[in-house]
Design a protein that fits this description.
- The structure holds two protein chains of two kinds.
- By secondary structure, chain A is an alpha+beta fold.
- Chain A is about 30% helix and about 25% strand.
- Chain A has a domain at about 15-45.
- In chain A, β1 and β2 form a beta hairpin.
- The longest helix of chain A has 13 residues, at about 20-30.
- Chain B is mostly helical.
- Classes of the chains: A alpha+beta, B mainly alpha.
Chain lengths: ~45, ~190
């Protein structure tokens, strides 16, 4: 049978982002506050 | 085993202030999203960056109350990641990142184009020697050579300034160079940098 698939499967690796990245996002979420002023929204990041 | 809460429920909880819901949401889609990004960029660090930027956009959208429940969460997140991947490649095509990890080493072609102090000294010495040699030339030849090489004048301008024809100016320049070579050979002078 004709071989029609590539051998290089390095691009199809299953990976997960690091715990540190997830932790950063959770901390970012906790620190981010959106302040509404009339029709405007301001981002405020309180670390 | 805890029953699976669907994405829309988690989003509602998160928007209501339950931070834990975000953690569940991120962990649920971590592998799928990270693998998707990695399949496009093929770099672990860039994958982390794009994953992070994607969720920063997600968090901002939730916090602003701008999330539209019409579509499903995962396709929406994938679309954000996809757009960020495109941004990444656009940025890189303008400013390609080169490193020395492969067979090509950028430092083999990059260099400081300034002369080092030793070469600068040699260059100054050569200019000084050449200046002395030029002083040895007959006045008419010296005049043409100086105008051409140091004052960057055309032969037409030299001819007008010295009151001779262009051919005479060209001939004087030619003899000036011949005589300079003779002087260099006679005095065993080496002019190289």
């Amino acid at each position: 049978m004709e071989k029609i698939y590539t051998n290089d499967q390095s691009h199809c690796k299953l990976i997960k982002s690091k715990r540190e990245t997830v932790a950063f996002l959770l901390n970012y979420s906790k620190s981010l506050k959106i302040i509404q002023a009339k029709d405007l929204q301001f981002e405020s990041n309180m670390n | 085993m805890e029953p699976q809460i669907d994405d829309s429920q988690l989003i509602k909880r998160y928007c209501a202030g339950e931070e834990k819901a975000l953690e569940l949401l991120i962990n649920r889609h971590n592998q799928r999203l990270s693998s998707f990004i990695y399949s496009k960029v093929n770099d672990r660090e860039i994958t982390e960056d794009i994953f992070q930027d994607t969720f920063i956009k997600v968090i901002k959208t939730f916090k602003r109350g701008a999330y539209n429940e019409e579509g499903k969460f995962l396709p929406w997140v994938m679309r954000i990641a996809h757009n960020l991947i495109i941004d990444h490649f656009r940025r890189n095509s303008r400013m390609p990142m080169l490193d020395g990890s492969q067979s090509f080493n950028i430092f083999s072609v990059l260099g400081d184009d300034k002369l080092n102090i030793e070469k600068q000294l040699i260059k100054n010495q050569i200019y000084s020697d050449l200046n002395l040699l030029i002083q040895e030339l007959p006045v008419d030849q010296k005049e043409v050579l100086v105008m051409r090489m140091y004052q960057d004048m055309s032969f037409k301008e030299i001819a007008e300034n010295t009151g001779v024809s262009i051919n005479t100016a060209l001939g004087r320049m030619r003899y000036a160079l011949i005589n300079l070579r003779k002087l260099i050979e006679q005095n065993d002078i080496v002019l190289t940098n």
